[in-house]
Amino acid sequence: MMKEILDYLNKVMPLDTLATEDFLNAFELKIFKKGDLILRADQVCRHFYFIKEGLTKSHFYNDGKEFIMTFFKENTLFTEISSYVNEQPSKYMIMALEDTTVYSISKVKVLLLCKKHHVIETLFSKLFSFATLGMMKRISEMLEEDATKRYNNFIRENNQVLQRISLGDLSSYLGITQVSLSRIRAKK
Question: Is the model's pLDDT at 1 over the cut of 70?
Fold first, then answer.
């Protein structure tokens, strides 16, 4: 059961047998159809999610324009970190781009597990560090790199999702228009 989560955990922070059993038992299976919102804007995020199958995007709108922060694919454990930590309504939405199956664990259960198992507390400390590093990388990329370099980075790091997202979503993620994206792709 939940071999995918075990494989993921063993890469991040192997847990002892009891902690592993308690951790895995705390998850619930949830299924979302393409287009469903896993998290709505103005909703407080109270869960971590692990994608068993499917693809999601984290995004928001400003003045009617969509901004995509990131995509989450299979075998990824994620949350909307700011809302989760601060217990404030999220600015972001998380939407299923495909029919998506996730394992969900509530913050209440995470906190109880962290009190019971120091190794799980250490695991979540590492996960928060990874999330922080990922956001710093994303901000740095948007501020310091031109669109062509951002596109090439995306292709190199996310090639397995390229065929699964629309050109509109890709251009929104890169922070450029679809026309600009077409020009960049034509040069390849």
Answer: no
